[in-house]
TrEMBL record:
This is DNA mismatch repair protein MutL. This protein is involved in the repair of mismatches in DNA. It is required for dam-dependent methyl-directed DNA mismatch repair. May act as a 'molecular matchmaker', a protein that promotes the formation of a stable complex between two or more DNA-binding proteins in an ATP-dependent manner without itself being part of a final effector complex. Keywords: DNA damage, DNA repair. One of its GO terms (molecular function) is ATP hydrolysis activity. The lineage of its organism: Bacteria, Pseudomonadati, Pseudomonadota, Alphaproteobacteria, Acetobacterales. GO terms for cellular component: mismatch repair complex. The gene is mutL. GO terms for biological process: mismatch repair.
Amino acid sequence: MRGMWPDACNPVHGVNMSSGNGQPVIRRLSEQVVNRIAAGEVIERPAAALKELVENAIDSGARRIHIRLDRGGIDRIDVTDDGCGMSPEDLRLAVERHCTSKLRDETLVRISTLGFRGEALPSIGAAARLTVMSRLHDSDSAWSIRVEGGVVGDVEPCAGPPGTRVLVEDMFFATPARRKFLKSPRVESSHAENVVRRLALSVPHIAFRLEFDQRLILDLPAQDMAARVAAILESGHADGLLPVEGQRGDLKLSGFICAPSVHRATANGQMLLVNGRPVVDPVLRTAVRVAYRNVMEHGRHAVVALSLDIPPEQVDVNVHPAKTELRYADSAAVRALVIGSLGRALGTGAGVAGVRPDLLQSRGASSARIWYPPERSADAAGISTRLAAPSPASAPQGAALPPGFAESTLPLSALPAARKAVPDGPETVVADAAPAIDHPLGAAVAQVLGTYIVSQTADGALVLVDQHAAHERLTHEILREQYLGGEIRAQRLLLPEVVDLPARQVEVLLSFGPGLARLGIEIEPFGGTAVLVRTMPALLGKENPVGMLRDLAEELEADDLATPAQADALDARMDAIIARMACHGSVRAGRKLTHEEMNALLRDMERTPRSGTCSHGRPTWLKLEKADLERMFGRR
């Protein structure tokens, strides 16, 4: 029953909490101790204190905020703003708990400011040495107040410009136990910089200057949102950002996102605002992850800057003292809005503005090696494997092509005749000399190493295209559109194929039989360790089903979340199955292409949604600008 005692009844070693007769005594804690306990919730590290101070500066109507930190804020935090300032009477109240000028009523619903709890300054003053200096714009002098370890001093006159300056020194000197848990100055500086970047994004009309140990880190002028996002996300090109707009009832989403080829190892590149408040919200982060799931490699995180506007009565910001966690009245609607809006923004073809993977930046991206099936000897004999959508003459009846896909793509079945002028030996196929055409991905110049297409754009840039990765995405999108429309046409095999598998994988495949049938794959049991394949999707031509069925069986067996009884899980899993089918049905690395085929592939990439990355999230193309070449060769 010990766990049911009041706090005062719990024995504490070394502390006498009893009266003379052994009865525990409840006593009132001093104001200083109460503030130190509360400070542990509000001020977890120097970056948390910095966040509260900058939020106060923003709420004061500042147009410029100057921030200086020493040793990551452990030794010193100095925040200066040119906001409205405070009178001597306001200064006295500002350092008392739960005193605020930001709540107009007591409903805690319509909160339009970043701060509102009235806990920041008292909590900081309880844990550190706090000095606040402030001056009203119409006042002749400034005033200051000092708080050390919860002990409040008198308000005194001082010199200072209009606005407010807050100085925090010797963080957690009054709570040594908390100070021991601080990380190195480098780590604390990183957290502080992240805080400033998020807050600066929320108010692009305010200029920010950030210094660490007298080193300039950020110097942002007042600017529009697009320029502020580019600066905060450190995007090299303004057109490297895709605009996002979406609305669902009273919910509105806006912002900018980076293409799938731009990603990071952590979610620190995701800047999320709700009603102008920077948040670290699991609902929004999950929605972002789902939106990028099919265009970004597993384990990497998207880079986004999104702002959600939601009616105040539909969100609760008073969940945690740090005010970074939220609760939504309808979280499903929020997720749907984010996933849908990002999906539309990502549905652009390769080469357009906002989808420009950079060759030099891509060198540092770490990605797992992806195995692609090699060119089959059967292909060399002339088996039809298509570069993109089937031509009208060869498309199965009733299988309409999705919008945005070309109908005049040259099929690879025409390859043998075109190869007569192409020697078998060289690793490089040079196209006929032709001027660069005015297309986003330019005109094909050569095929190198039997895998990469080199093209030149009208502005003199070079584009490199991975032919297998690009064709994989084209095939994926066609299959996906046909699957969603219920239009995937099955092609019956002349001789059914027997695929031997472990008994467990056979069981898994058969349990997904109805879903696979919708994809054009008809299977049936054929003994304890085999399945019989009767049909394959017509789009894949004469793709050998053995390797693909084995890959699908392994993936389905390893996925604990996908069960045939759950329709949503099955639909989500189907996209991964389509990706595997697209990989097997795409033109292989090592396939020599003609000039016409290379240009046909480039044009289809420009028209096909999400073709900037393959089904595994790898970039399908890279661009080397003329200026990049000149820098590499020392010409500029």
